[in-house]
Design goal:
Layout: H1 5-18, E1 47-71, H2 76-84, E2 89-100, E3 103-112, H3 117-125, E4 130-142, E5 146-150, E6 156-160, E7 165-171, E8 179-189, E9 192-203, E10 209-233, H4 238-245, E11 249-258, E12 261-264, H5 271-277, E13 282-288, E14 291-296, H6 303-316, E15 322-324, E16 327-335, H7 341-349, E17 353-364, E18 368-370, E19 373-377, E20 381-387, E21 396-406, E22 409-417
Parallel strand pairs: 7-9, 19-22
Antiparallel strand pairs: 1-3, 1-4, 1-8, 2-3, 4-7, 5-6, 8-9, 10-16, 10-17, 10-21, 11-16, 12-14, 12-15, 13-14, 17-20, 18-19, 21-22
Length: about 425
Amino acid sequence: MKWDKNTIISIILVVLFLGSIIAAGVAGIMESASQKEVLPEDQNNTQELYTAQTDAKVLEIFPQITVIAKPLDFDQDNIKTKIDAISGIKSTTVQFNQADENEFYVMISANIEADKKEEVMENISKLEFLESIELYQSALLEVPYTITFTNDANKEIEQAFVSEKIEGIINQTTQKEDQLSILVQAIFVGDVMTYVRGIEQQNLAEGIQMIFSELNLNIVNWQNKYLVSGTTTIDNNVSSEIKTEMNYDNLMINTYFSGQLIVDNNINSKLDEIIDENESIVLDYNLSDNVTKINLDLENLDLEKYNQLILDLSEIDEDLNILKEPSLEISISFDTNDINLEFMEKLAELNIQNPKVKKLADVDVSKIIIENKEYEYDQNITSTWLDYPQDINKTEELFTIQGYVSRNKIFYINLIKKE
């Protein structure tokens, strides 16, 4: 059975209070080291535990690991001998403690060879005389200049960290430069801090994060794939005509409605009644500048329902003045070796207005560096639409990049030409 997080923190807290979490291999780095010698001789020497929550950054990972486990062998010397025999371990300390009335645990602190850390941790995790094994690393953490600590009596102490660094216990998979949320535990004698450690609670770098940036990237290839977008009238049966008139491979057509129905104000007397009768496609309306703007449910709009709405409005006002109708937006994708003047003329014949043509480009994403941090991506090439023919002779382009990352690993990336 695995330890729960609260139990682990409680165990570390107890050992922290005893002052023996980490073997004394990096003494002098800890912020409080010099403060132990400035205690007044007559000061009450009662030690009190204070805690705080803060963010931290991993600056350095030491060649030390901490093991918390349930022992099946209760011979402390025997455990130490077996642990010391693992290749890569230089020295260890072993101690038993009690988690509750019925449960004991063993805590092992080990100084190791830095280049054998992974091997050491893997071998420890396979030891048969330990169960519910939890492995932790020792690290130097960057923390805020001041941290406010609180004890069980809700007394607060604001402590300054001049170097903005403390030692800490971090999880097995945590890496250098990771951003963490930590529990900071400190021992005070009066208002003087004599001991401090940070304990990782959450690794913010391990979660999926979104990144945005702008980069110049190389265009390495153009595919014979095109995307044409434009606008036409709401009653244009353009899809069937395109299928008839344009014989291209992998032809795909998508349409959707856009915009409002805007009419003059002569219909206001019975507008609410009309809206109720056409509630399946009408969302609401508003009056502005002597016109009526009717917001339609564009996702559920179809031509038959729209024509019925216009008919109902015309019954109120025989001279119904339609100032603006929703438009039909259309996008057409297909494969072809080339788009010529005849193609553009055909779009005009189909009443597709303001057509924009794009061609699919392959872009080199093998090296993505954002704010001096290089990211890894399992694809060297990604594709995006660029303007045709304006961009066809370009070898690089400025892109807006949107992606999802964890640490330096990109899981998804989207490129959009920077306009």
